[in-house]
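hi support,

uploading two proteins for the ticket. first:
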Amino acid sequence: GAIICAQYLGSNQKEKANQALKQLIFSITLISILITLPCILFRRPLLSLIFGSVEKNVMDNSLSYLFITALSYPFIALYNAGAASFRTSQNSRLPMAIAFGSNILNILGNIFFIFTLNLGVAGAALSTLLSRISSAAIILILLKQPKQDLYIDSYLSIRPEIETITKILKIGIPTGIENGMFQFGKLVIQSTVSTMGTTAIAAQAMVAMLESFACQASIGIGLGMMTVVGKCVGAKEYEQARHYTILLTKYAWIACFICCAMILFPIKQITSLAGMEAESAKLAIWLTRIVFTYKMIFWIPSFLPGYGLRAAGDVKFSMITSTLSMWICRVVVTIFLVHTFHMGPIAVWIGMGADWTIRSFIFLARFKSNKWLEHKVI
């Protein structure tokens, strides 16, 4: 939806951009509710399907946590829609400030609900729910200010427009499938990791968390790229779209190098601060050095060009490439190496490295071909 808004703004159609924002709010509210209901109603079979047989206490806590956090799905969806619209309006500081405040509220809520009221897992879920409600409420209120490029004059006046919703879904559904398959693949890998010993599980969890942290600056640049490239494509400035995709990819590469270095050099101190056992810490340090060295080379070209492709409307190619690469490399390779050669957590990262490598060459070839600029969104 934000891509469509950006392209309308790039073509100086502000009224249509605001109308698209209304349809984005309507669509995302409806879709998030439709996702929330089955997550609540079928939470027990869903958890049993993913994690199998677990202790009763663990399952009870999981059911409680999923029920409460599922109620927050429409609110996190609305916040993300609002945040995307502000970034499209070149105001990324406001979503950052709201997210920062929400995290502080979440931390304080955890302290109150868990340690003061002794609500345990339910307390953690309640804190998450309240922080997401507050984020959505704040950003929806601020969206009503007419001084910005994108705003909503009245939420009560929103009515569905099939043509605009169809445009949103043409981009949103492939992107959603891509992200959904990615998360589902991570669950499959996590289920495989759970069969390893506690040392391997602890080391894998630490490396996965650090690897995710090292991506955040580059992902932020990627989100900015979608706005910039979307406006360029909307204005039919295709050379500018290419230029900014290349430029921002370079910036993201620099950011990735810096973030990886910030973790690689003090990795021993990080594992010590986390209170890891000696054997788990040793394995985590070894894995981090291997993974981050490879990540600094191949992670950026495997992800950043994809943001530019999506901004131009080339979402089906991105979906097919990412999904196939994810399942063939990450999932199949990981499971094969774990169960056939008993390689432990390094198998996860061999599969992921293969995914990054193959996806890099495919995305770069697509970008060079200029076929991604042939799509018509608006």
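and the second one:
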Amino acid sequence: MAFEGLDFYNLDDELSEDERLVRDNVRRFVDAEILPIIAKHYEAGTFPMELIPKFGELGLLGANIKGYGCAGLGEVAYGLINQELERGDSGIRSFCSVQGSLCMYPIYAFGSEEQKQKYLPGMAKGEIIGCFGLTEPDFGSNPNGMITRAEELRNGGFRLNGRKRWITNGNIAHVAIVWAKLNGVIRGFLVPTTTRGFTAQKIDGKFSLRASVTSELILEDVELPADAILPGVQGIKGPLSCLTQARAGIAYGAIGAAMACYDCALSYAKDRVQFSRPIAGYQLVQQKLAHMVTEITKAQLVSLQLMRLKEKKKYTPVQVSLAKRNNVFHALEIARMARDILGGNGITYDYPIGRHMLNLETVYTYEGTHDIHTLIIGQHITGISAFE
């Protein structure tokens, strides 16, 4: 039976026809192109590169950016794209999320017109792949402490030195958005990955996000022209605004992983017979399924309202933190419950639950850990920072 999703509160009625059409098109794409191959890629630790042009054809790259060959969709439609892609795999959603929110967005928001024209149309097609270099080996939750430095050259250009770690798409990227301190101020730089002194080293041996390319970027006397700097932003606001864009999509994406786990567990529980009856007929299993439905529905409500606020330009970063924190926490909880319902079968590649469960362990801590988002909300509530 085709996946129809979970809509306990009739939220489809709150979506426009265009939003439903976008979601359903991506849903069919995930069913036809991603689900048949993703388990093998996950097991092998490879990313399905052949899908990238198809992402471009469907308008999934920078989908909520207007102009420059991008689809120009609304924020709810963008969220639903993330939901469906993560129903396939977190690594697939991560690729599109990084490409659009972390790479295309800063060029669109902070770049010169020349930079926009040079990069965005090709990135929208998937012909130019980007990566986002913020996290460092010793600085993740505290990006202000970054060590990577830029210095001005006499010819007006720049020289970069430093390392970035846990960088999605690093080894397949054509351009890296690298954040570095220039005269003590954080600035963004467009670094072609063929530049002398730039090296990307793939991080292997991962339990999680195995169908995603994760890298360490090494910059050793990387010299760039004067027009490599993003002129429109200075300070920590630059990278954090990009993360805010991405986190909103992650909140929606986590719902897709949770829905996939719930759908699999429900189907399994109806078919699996123990003690002469389907296990779906037992109280403890029904309690788990009811909890899943409840948390997925709450996450849908939170995300829909967040994206409506985003469309009206009334949302705040702390609202994004609440959605990311809540939705990923409960998606991981749902994956673990679903694994429990499937018993030993839940850890096999015959079912998607183990894959989603391990992927969500990473989503739980990347782009702001659960605890960091807790403190962001806590600071907002109390007016007192717990970071110092």
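thanks. also noticed: The chain has a mean pLDDT of 95.
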